[in-house]
What does this fold into?
Amino acid sequence: MAKPLYLVKIGGSVITDTTRITTSRKGEILRLVDEIIRAKEKGGFDLIIGNGGGSFGHIIAKQYNVQEGLLSSESYRGALMVHEAVSKLNSEIVDIALEKNFYLFPFAPSSFAYSADRRIVEGDISPIKRAIEKGFIPIVYGDTMIDSQRGVTIISTEEVFRFISMQMKPEKIIVGTEVDGVFDKNPDENRDARLVEKINSDNIHSVLSSTDGAKKIDVTGGMKSKLSILYEMVKSSNSTGYIANANTPGVIEKLLLSEKVACTTVNP
Ligand code: IPE
It folds into this structure.
C-alpha cells in the first residue's frame, strides 16, 4: 500500500541569517537534516521537502522588485540573480544531506512550472512522483518563476506546495518558521499575544484579518500569505497543516512522527 505523503517546509528565516545577504546557518541546516533523517527512519511516510529563500531570496528580489515582474532591462538580471542565489542555498542543503547519505533530489520550481499573476497555473510534477517511487526525497524551494502576466515573479515554497498538493493529496503539511505558530496579535509588538492553537472554517477569516504580512523584507507576503495558502491546501487535499517553530530543536522531528508540540494546527 502507498505510504501517506507529508510535505515539510523549512523556512528561510531558520536556515539563513535574514540580516545578512546570502548567509546560511549551516548548524541549523545540519540539525534539521538530522531531525528529518531520524523521523524518516522511524516513520512510514513519503516526504517532499521545501526550503525557503531567506536572505538568499528576499533581499535581492526586493532590490530588483522581481516579484512585480519584468519592469525594465534590469529585471532580467534580478530574476536570474535571485534564481542563482536560491539554487545555491538549495544545493547547500542537498550537499549537507548527501554527506549523511540521505538523498535529496532537487527540483527547481522555475524548471517545472509557470505562474499567472503569482499563482502557479501549469507544471509537470511527474518527475517528482517518480523520484519518490525510486527512493529519493524530492526537495523544492521558493524561486523566481516565469509568469504569463508579469513576465517573471517570485513564488514561495507554500505556493509550490499548493500546486503539488492539488495533484498528490498529502496527509500532512508542515510549515517550519521562526515562531511557534500563528498568534492572535503580532507577538513582536504585543506581550500578551497568544498562540492560536487551532484554525479551521470557524475562525480562519477572523485569524487572517488579524494576521500581518511580514515586517522584515519578505516579497512573498509573510505569515498572512503562508496561512492563507496553507488553509487552501488543507481544504483541497483534506489534510492537516501545522505552522510550527523549526528553530526549536525536535519540533520538526516530532511533527513528522505525529507527536504533540506547541504549534498552530490547521484543518479544513
Ligand atoms: C522565497 O521563498 C523565495 C524567494 C524570495 C526567491 P519562501 O517565501 O518560501 O521563503 P521564506 O521561508 O519566506 O524565506
About this structure: The chain has a mean pLDDT of 96. The CA atoms of residues 16 and 25 lie 5 Å apart. The radius of gyration is 17 Å. The first strand starts at residue 5 and ends at 10.
